Amino acid sequence: MFVLETQRLLLRQYKVEDIIPLHSIFSDTETMKFYPAPFSFQQTKDWINRNQDRYKNDGYGLWAVCLKDTNEFIGNCGLVKQKVNDNFEVEIGYHINKKYWSMGFASEAAKACKEYGFNKLGLNKLISIIDPNNVPSIRVAEKIGFFKEKEVFIFDKVHYIYSEVKEKIEEAN
Question: What range does the domain containing 34 cover?
Fold first, then answer.
């Protein structure tokens, strides 16, 4: 099973038993306020199934984020193909249980996913699609080196696209 490791976290492929802790995140109204609505149990199950399909089809997807010391499931983070203005882009997405907000876990996981995308998968560009009012997600994107690229109409409303292009990293070194 795929594992990405950081100082405090393990990112791994979803398992069936992840549905309960993931649903506790996705059913929370505060956590999901930038989505159309919190997820039902079936929507959470479908989310896991879609990501398991992504692992097979794309070689990546959103992964379970677990604390390294206790193996506690605290959220998800990973890479997802998204269609933006008729082009396919790879997004770093993240959701962390609100009891772990403001502890740097989303930034730590997203940074590991960025390094994996650029260095292991050979991607040249990564994005994050962020609701303009989601200031904490904007901060995570900025902490990992992303910059606001543009505004797009996606998921039935305007979102910011934050991104980083690998060439810019190499030119800076």
Answer: 3-172
